[in-house]
GPI-anchored cell wall organization protein Ecm33
Amino acid sequence: MMFSSKFFGAVLAIASVAHAADSGCSSSSTLQIQNQGDTSSLQGCTTYTGNVQIASQTSGIITLNGVTEIDGDFVVDGATNMSSLAAPSLQTITGKFTLNNLQTLSSLSMPKLTSVGDLTFAGLPNLASLGFDGIVKQCKTLNIQNTFLSSLNGINLQTVNSVTIANNRMLQTLMFQVTSVPQSIILLANGDQFDASFPNLETASNITFRSCKSLSIPSLKNVTGNLGFYENSFATLDCANLTSVGQTLAINANPSLTEIDLPILKTIGGGFQVQNNTKLDNATFPAVQTIGGALDFYGGFNTVGLPALKDCRGGFNLQSSGSVDCTPFNNEKGPNSVIKGTFKCYNKVSNPGNAASTPSGGNGTTTKGAAALLSVPSNTMLMSMAGILAGLMIMM
């Protein structure tokens, strides 16, 4: 078959254009975008390999056309006059996606984005919604703080290593489908009606829930690190499937809390705190067997129950302004007993406090820990014992 020189010329021209486009789609240095004109270098790229940064002096509207993947970081930091950011075709950012300190940004549109390496949004006082119509399902680290977002519609994570959602005063709902979070979950100081739901979450390393109106974690089985509930406004804490906490479990300063349901929790590797929950009358944990650290409860309890407790390796502090019964615990203290450390149990205290406090009024007992119980006889006692032995020897 014969090919004309024109045909070969056309093929060479196409190859040349493709090579030129490909060579512009990768860079070891950061691609800086200062205005809309600078985005033209991305239009011929399906995948851009390298980091992309929108400069702080950028203003107005920026649209990244054409590119479907940024194999690197995409960072916008300090562009206080940029009002709109769009990437109509962008599906994946393999590295960091950071929007930080963008005071006038009010529109974000990335309708096909589904996967991000690390997503950090902070200091976005005019951004009310996310334009992630394709739903971001994969993210290694999610960190959203100090924004005007009223919802996280567009993010429904199925895999994530850590989650921090904090100080988003308009944010009222959050639901993620993750089953495991290897690092941490931190939710704090969001909207006053903040409703958090993790219906499938079974295990996590460290969890902090603070200032939640309602909380749903029905599948949670195991927390390998710390688990804390602070200053929430829900009435019931329900962790029906939780069996173990690797370090400290803290349930503190939840003013509306009237019921704690932890029916099969057996092991707490560190300390166990239930403190200053002003409406909580009954703190009963029917299955708890082991507390690796100290127990430190104070509040207005009338009932505290730990019927399965076999080993409390640290101190024991229970102070209540109510009529809690200390008798069951008095019978379990001592170096070879269930409660090993310093023991303090008081009821009808006027101002109950933590282990470091001294009860004011009320009825109760303080006993030093195991080490303090091992005393050395005085010289006088030793001399008396020697005299008794000498007398016995003379009589023999």
Summary: The chain is about 10% helix and 40% strand. Helices lie at 5-23, 40-43, 327-330, 370-373, 379-395.
